[in-house]
Amino acid sequence: MTGTATSGEGAFNPRLIFGLIAAGVFGFIGFWVLTAFAPELSAGRDGGGHALSRAANGYAGIAQLLRVGGHGVTILRDAEAAAPGFAGGDGLTILTPSPATSTEALRERLRSIRTPVLVILPKYQVAPTMERDKVRRVGDAPNGAALAAALVPARVTTNVHATSPRHSVQVNFWDGSALPVRMGGSIQSIESPYFSSMVTADGRAVMVEVQDRFATTILAEPDFVNNLAMADNSRARAGLAMISKLAGPGAPIAFDVTLNGLGARQHNLLRQAFVPPFLGLTLCVIVATLFLLWQGFVRFGPPLLPIRVRAAGKAGLVQTSARLIVQAGASGRFAPRYAQMVREIAARRLHAPPGLDDTALGAWLDRFRDRRGRKFSELAGALDQGGSTLAAVDAAQKLAEWRKDVVRDIG
Questions:
Q1: Distance between CA atoms of 174 and 200, rounded to whole angstroms?
Q2: Closest CA relative to residue 173, chosen from 149, 147, 142, 207
Q3: Residues 72, 332: Cα–Cα separation, whole Å
Q4: Does residue 110 carry a pLDDT above 60?
Q5: Are residues 199 and 319 in the same domain?
Q6: Partners of residue 191 on adjacent β-strands
Q7: Residue 221's domain spans which residues?
Q8: Is 306 inside a domain boundary?
Q9: Residues 192 and 155 sit within 8 Å (Cβ to Cβ)
Q10: Cα separation of 175 and 198, whole Å?
Q11: Does 5 reside within a domain?
């Protein structure tokens, strides 16, 4: 059967092509916007030790417990912010540096905080598993003492002491209260001449106040407040008491996650392009790009390129000279000269016998033919006959092809 051709809009539907282009443009812009704001938009389900993590080493549990206890808990993603609602009274900003946090990053973050600060030191080094929100311990955190030493001009030591999971340890608070707590098998304590003990566990300092520094406290044992501690009532009660008493009744509490790579990066150039004051420039560039695409889509025919009066380069010099020869009407005199030039070049390259005149040399060159079987004398004769400019150009082009095939020259 033979099909019947139907009239249509062409091989491609313009609306479909325009839709594909628009989807590609907006998808490209959306990809870079999400890339720029990925740390701020992340849900934090990465198994890290921060207030958004539900893994064993995270602090999402104590954050929820503090909310239930009447505290206004917020998550800080801005590296320049602190606990909201703080007006010089009670309040607390909690920093949870990870084993990968540098001491310089901790110092820089502390310089931007004007509220009382609690720094929870890392104790474990963990690795993610195939299951979501679950991690496995691969070792001890190597930078706990170094992070604490960044706050004082003295040496700091951290020690891990083994405990029995079946027996409770006595946890004493700075206000004289005490609680029996069952630990998970070890307690991390901290020591330094610049630290004043606030909370002890069996006589070992687990929470200290940094001297000569405004309201800065260090908790060396994260197992009092992490999600693993929420599985035991005594530890959860002790961790809640530590933070509640330190912050004050009903005081605002903020958990910082910028040290864990989940905050707004002020030095991210890609992010700066999508926030004021550079957002306006970015929008102008996007709109201008869309207009250029639209103009290219609806343009009728290719754009006309301007013609140079005098072309540049060697090719331009040849073209200009050719135009002058044609305008002077002297193309007829140049055709025989071109044939003579090709005759001399071919004789030299093909090693013709010396002493031959033009006629004999032309007959000798007829022994060599190009790929189309044309002889030199025929092509040179066409040039010598003269005629119109177009005929001379056509004859010269054929002679140049013979020169290229036989002499192996550029023609």
A1: 9
A2: 207
A3: 98
A4: yes
A5: no
A6: 157
A7: 38-269
A8: no
A9: yes
A10: 9
A11: no
The reply to whether 115 and 84 lie within a common domain is yes
Mean pLDDT over 328-353 rounds to 81
Whether the CB-CB separation of 376 and 347 falls below 8 Å is answered with no
Contact (CB, 8 A) for 236 and 229: yes
Q: Mean pLDDT: which of 183-187, 218-222, 276-280, 368-372 is highest?
A: 218-222
Domains in the chain: how many in total? 3
Those residues with Cβ within 8 angstroms of residue 53's Cβ, 6 or more apart along the chain or in another chain: 44, 45, 46, 47, 59, 60, 133, 227
Q: How far apart are CA 36 and CA 156, in angstroms?
A: 38
3-state secondary structure of 97: coil
Res 314 pLDDT > 50: yes
- List residues bridging with 341 in a β-sheet: none
Distance (Å, rounded) from C-alpha 59 to C-alpha 47? 11
Identify the CA nearest to 192 among candidates 153, 247, 227: 153
Q: What is the reported pLDDT for 20?
A: 82
- Facing residues of 52 across strands? none
DSSP letter assigned to residue 307? P
Q: Are residues 174 and 255 in the same domain?
A: yes
Q: Are residues 59 and 88 in the same domain?
A: yes
128 and 260 both lie in a single domain = yes
> To which H or E segment does residue 405 belong?
helix 389-406
User: What is the crossing angle of helices 279-298 and 14-36, to 10°?
Assistant: 160
Residue 8 domain-assigned (yes or no): no
**Separation of alpha carbons 284 and 317, rounded Å:** 44
Find the CATH number of the domain harbouring 195. 3.40.50
Tokens of 83: 């606990």
Same-domain check for residues 199 and 59: yes
Which helix (H) or strand (E) segment is 219 a member of? strand 216-219
Same domain, 103 and 252: yes
Domain presence at residue 9: no
At 262, the amino acid letter reads L
Task: Give the pLDDT score at 79.
Answer: 67
Task: Examine the domain organization and report whether 255 and 385 are in the same domain.
Answer: no
**Quick one: tokens of 154?**
């003295």
168 touches 234 (CB < 8 A):
yes
| Residue 218 CB coordination number (10 Å) | 27
Residue that is written with structure tokens 């839709």 in the block: 19
> Three-class SS of residue 135?
strand
Rounded to two decimals, the pTM is 0.58
